[in-house]
Amino acid sequence: MEAFLEYVPKRDIFDQIPEKTKEQVKKIVDFLKTRSKAELVTISAVGITGLAGYFWVQNKWKYWQRKGIVGPKPTFADLGNTITTFSDLGESLFHNFSDDVIGIYFFGTRPCLIVKDPLVWKDVCIKGFQNFTTVMRGEANYAFGKMAADFMTTAEGRKWKRLRNTIGPFFSGARLKETCLVLQDTYEHYEEKYIPKTEVEAKEFSAGYTLRSILGSGYSLNAKENEQLVEEVYRHSNILFETSFFGIFKLNITSYPNSTDKFFREVIAQIMAGGNDGRINLVSLMAGNIIDDSEELTATKGFTKNEIPQCSHSCFFHFRRLLAVQNEIHNIVKNADLSYDGLKKIKLIDACIKETQRLFTFIALLREADHDCEVAGVKIEKGNLVMFLPSGVHKSREFYEEPEKFNPHRFDGNESNTLQDDYWFGFGIGPRSCPATRWAFVAIKLFIANVIKKYEIISGEGTPELADLKMKFVGKQVKTTKPMNIRFKNRI
Ligand code: HEM
């Protein structure tokens, strides 16, 4: 009641109502006068429900204010603070609020505490894991429709543990040695068929290689042997990622066409039925560990992974202006052995990948509280969210000297990704960090090494400067506001 009264306008407000509004109110009153009793009852019920809903939401949006925590104003159009937070991955929040914690509302009215301190985030993910075992339950998990229920990202408890343990061996050193051979084969096929003679958009170029490398090494679908199927997967992946998820959450419906859903299920069934080259892959590993018939095998989100192209295309985009770095890499790779063991010695590319992810951070990290607990001195209730925006840390002068500069040598001596860095969060942290980190590094390294071995990457026509580029969400994927065109100049 108190919350309601807070919103009931005070008397003098009526004097300030503009004439135009008064006329509109009169029109509504006249309209209501002509309605039947039954119609008036229905209109009143809808009106009262709407008003009650409005006040209920406004009251929910006072949660952080009541706790004395600052934050941006939530609105209905922004689904709380969801769209604006997503649109720049929280960078403006970092600049607009100097406090260590910021309160926002996610997916409508869900309170979400943004923590800025990287050490607090480490505590949440590692020491506090028993309180934060999932990324998020509910709304966001419906972003990919029905299929999402089977992703590892949404799995919990024993099912999650089992999935994680099952795919673990796929990323072991021994397996990666084998993976490297497949990746090299994939690259050679891709180069022969696709290295553009003229200009190309860096992301498109990287995405094509990535999909083929994931399908080849993760799913035993060899692009060389079945290019047509791979192109179909590419087409359906784009459909999956380009459909927006705002507006469909909670409805548990599939935002993409049924044909795409059917296509992916059929491809998985085909792999499970042995329609591959007999090598161990993610699907066969999981097929061997199914304990519940209802479980589908879309379980890792790897099938339609987006992050590798994000990372490699950003690397290429940076390289076009960094001929010195390119030449440095070229000198190392021109006669190098690009096997798994050989790649390990090429540390400069690891550093370039880390530096690219630092400057081009396209992730926000999230955890949901399983129990009431405390984070950074703030009481967090069960079901509320805690979020960390690595882009703020990655671009902070406090942690990085001249953070706006691309300088891979800042990681000299600390190039490898051990997930132990204090101020670098490219693959997350703790038990729910990215299980494919080593695999991703190998795939990107091999790609970059192969390209730079033969080509010099230069700017394309009208290629924007880094400062003119902003990231934006298109559907469910992060893209840049302008195309990142690059060209390949043959070194030979
Ligand atoms: C450059 C490439 C990649 C980047 C930057 C990346 C980044 C991330 C990040 C930031 C997280 C969340 C970590 C956290 O919340 O602490 C994550 C989780 C995850 N990633 Fe990756 N990833 C990449 C490639 C891949 C690939 C290729 C696969 C699959 C084969 C994959 C599978 C997963 C899975 C299954 C999870 C959820 C893990 C869990 O909930 O236990 N990632 N990744």
Automatic annotation (TrEMBL):
PROSITE patterns reported for this sequence: CYTOCHROME_P450
Pfam families named among the record's database cross-references: p450
TM annotation in the entry: none
Cofactor: heme
Keyword Transcription included in the entry's annotation: no
Claim: RNA-binding is one of the keywords in the record: no
Domain of life: Eukaryota
Entry keyword set: Heme, Iron, Metal-binding, Monooxygenase, Oxidoreductase
A molecular function GO annotation: heme binding
Residues in the signal sequence: none
Binding-site residues, heme: C434
Similarity comment: family membership: Belongs to the cytochrome P450 family.
Functional note: Cytochromes P450 are a group of heme-thiolate monooxygenases. They oxidize a variety of structurally unrelated compounds, including steroids, fatty acids, and xenobiotics.
Stated name of the protein: Cytochrome P450
Organism: Oikopleura dioica
